[in-house]
Specification:
261 residues; alpha/beta; 2-enoyl-CoA Hydratase, Chain A, domain 1; globular
Amino acid sequence: MSVEVVLVDVVDRVATVTLNRPEARNALSPELLDALPAVFEDCDDRDDVDVLVLTGADPAFCAGLDLKRMARLEGGTRVAPHDGDGFMEPVPPISKPVIGAINGPAVTGGLELALTCDFLVASERALFADTHARVGVMPGWGLTVRLAEAVGQRRAREMSATGNFVDAPTALAWGLVNHVVPHDELLAFCTKLAGDIVSNDPGGVRTVIGTYREQIGLVTDDTRRVEMERARAWSDGGGSSAEEVAARRAAVVERGRSQTR
């Protein structure tokens, strides 16, 4: 029997969406990349859902693209469909607020996925890293824009250039996350925040969240295009092959372990 790669649990108008590949640290496989946008769109359409909470099955939030699987795909890596502005996104834009419940490492594509959420709550076990440069790929889901928006240009440049891991207290101090809570209390804390949102007028919530998103879009659309064009140029110019990227995976994992012991 196949295992669902994304789990959805709806209680009291809150949809908890769980990446469910714990054996692969919830790395984004082709199946997960196909399933996640469909889940988001379905939750956006449901009349019994007002808020989404996105998390991962322990021990990780998301380790990014599944490099082993992607190396075997014809044409190398793949991405989720474009949004309405032509930008690549791991999930489609939806009208309802999304809380990221970061239960463990959020690395590279996993960090990009986290940054698509409206705000983040971190477990004390959460870790954040942008290892694109370390494995030889370019971000294409808006990381260079959203990470800088969250932590500032200088800190974002440091994270991207070094590939170093940032722990939960540092992420809180830098403004990357809104709260840090004990691991066992993460989902309960996020559900409480979601309940506070549910208690408000749903149309009003979607309008104000949509206003924030539209305002940010006015500022960041041009910078997103710069990232997209440079990612395409890197890929078209040869960049690193899928095999080279996959070969670097073990070194990245070991570096992360050494920095977080």
